[in-house]
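Entry 14. Structure prediction run on the chain below.
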Amino acid sequence: MKKLIALVFALVCVLSVAGCASKTDNGGPQKPTESIISNSKPNQWGIVLEAENITASGLTIVCSHSGGENAAELSTGSYYVIQKLENTGWIDVEYAPQEHDIAWTSEAWIIQKEGTTKWDVNWEWLYGELSAGEYRIGKEIMNFKAAGEYETELVYAEFVIR
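Output returned:
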C-alpha cells in the first residue's frame, strides 16, 4: 500500500512540474471581439476566471489566485466545457461531429499562488465557430492537499460573441 501511495505521489509531482509553463491550445492570431468578466467574486480558494481576446473560435482564460480558504496546491488540466445562455438557463454547447471519440489528457497545470496564469483555448476543433450569444467557459480546478486527498470545483468565465 505504501508503494502505491508513493507511486501516486510521484506521478502527481511529475505532472505538477510538467504543468508549470503556460499552455496554448493551437491558438493563432485572432481578431478579438469583447470580454465580460464573470466570476468577479473569488471562489472559496480565491480563484477568479476572466475571458479576454474572445473570437468565435477561441479565447484566453485569465486565472487569478488571491487568498482563499484552505487552498493548498491548485491546478487544472486540458478539460473545459462551453455553455450557452438560453431561456431555460445555461446549456452545454454540443460538440461538432467528430471522426473519433473525444478524450481529454490529464496534465496538471499549476495555478500560481497570489498570481495570474493564462491559457489560450482554441475550440474550433471541438465546437466549431460559436454563433452570436452569451456563453461561459468552465475549467475544473483541483485543490490537491495530499495523496488521495483533493477537492475539485468547476469555475466559469462568461463572455459574449457578437
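Confidence is low (pLDDT under 50) at residues 1-38.
Filed with the rest of this week's runs.
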